[in-house]
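Design job #97: recover the sequence.
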């Protein structure tokens, strides 16, 4: 098989990006610790149990008090996310197609990769530096009987994104689906805590990265192809402590609708999924150990989603048999009523 890691793909640049992310994280961790010392800590009150809508009981709060170093490894999470969707039966909805999933090594991206493979698609996983997670995801995709190409690099770089599109098309002989999912998130108590450096990191990863990848794949997409962007509930409602992240997600929602109009006559559909709280490495790499224990409790279902509760939405929007008449929508999957 091809060298699935494709480490030659500008991998040297990813070390600097990950280092920048960890520096931002460390500064925020120090600010959080100082605030906690000033306030003497906080206590969370008792809550009702999580809402369950199937026979399978999903975990609610309290979640493990854990803090991951960015960009965050799923392999290091104390409570492993559920992504295999054992009750989901494939039916060939994506048979013979090829998909690119950015941020596909873990979290929502990993769950989507598994279901795309189960539906008959070959998958290329784009990731920053999380080699172990990417290798694990490749194994799960191949267990579904499909091929998986791993591509290590930084979606902030337009040249890397062009290389991804070209190499995926060369490897699989076609390109049908792009899932823009890579993201950077770090909370801030006040807008004055947001440096231009941090704002640039968030904007260029979450918005420029989506733009670069979309622009790179369009020459290879044909009628029936689709682009699916990962938005967020905070792009719909905002978030007091995720100002920059929420800004990018609102931009992604608008980008989705605008690009859908732009590509409509080519027969290429563009949609977005707006998740609520989802148990992925992104969040323990953002929240402090004491805060992450209550992650998702604010949703009406009083728990975070597991990635396998999101991935079927990505299948639905990608499959021509399901969504041929749907483009330019932002589909909320938030665990709350009416949003």
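Job complete. Output follows.
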């Amino acid at each position: 098989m091809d060298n699935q890691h494709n480490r030659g793909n500008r991998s040297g640049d990813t070390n600097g990006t990950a280092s920048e992310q960890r520096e931002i994280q460390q500064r925020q961790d120090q600010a959080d610790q100082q605030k906690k010392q000033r306030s003497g800590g906080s206590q969370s009150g008792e809550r009702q149990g999580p809402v369950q809508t199937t026979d399978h009981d999903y975990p609610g709060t309290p979640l493990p008090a854990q803090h991951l170093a960015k960009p965050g490894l799923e392999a290091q999470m104390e409570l492993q996310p559920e992504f295999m969707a054992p009750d989901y039966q494939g039916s060939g909805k994506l048979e013979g197609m090829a998909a690119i999933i950015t941020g596909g090594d873990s979290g929502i991206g990993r769950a989507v990769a598994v279901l795309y493979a189960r539906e008959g698609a070959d998958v290329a996983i784009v990731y920053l530096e999380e080699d172990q997670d990417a290798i694990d995801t490749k194994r799960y995709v191949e267990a579904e009987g499909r091929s998986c190409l791993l591509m290590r690099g930084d979606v902030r770089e337009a040249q890397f994104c062009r290389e991804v599109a070209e190499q995926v098309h060369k490897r699989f002989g076609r390109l049908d689906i792009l899932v823009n999912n890579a993201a950077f998130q770090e909370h801030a108590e006040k807008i004055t805590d947001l440096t231009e450096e941090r704002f640039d990191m968030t904007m260029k990863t979450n918005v420029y990265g989506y733009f670069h990848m979309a622009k790179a794949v369009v020459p290879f997409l044909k009628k029936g192809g689709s682009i699916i962007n990962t938005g967020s509930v905070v792009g719909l409602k905002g978030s007091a402590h995720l100002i920059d992240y929420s800004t990018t997600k609102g931009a992604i929602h608008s980008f989705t609708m605008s690009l859908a109009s732009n590509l409509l006559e080519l027969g290429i559909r563009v949609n977005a999924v707006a998740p609520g709280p989802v148990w992925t490495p992104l969040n323990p790499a953002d929240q402090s150990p004491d805060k992450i224990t209550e992650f998702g409790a604010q949703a009406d279902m009083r728990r975070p989603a597991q990635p396998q509760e999101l991935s079927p939405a990505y299948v639905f929007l990608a499959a021509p048999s399901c969504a041929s008449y749907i483009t330019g929508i932002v589909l909320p999957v938030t665990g709350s009523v009416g949003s």
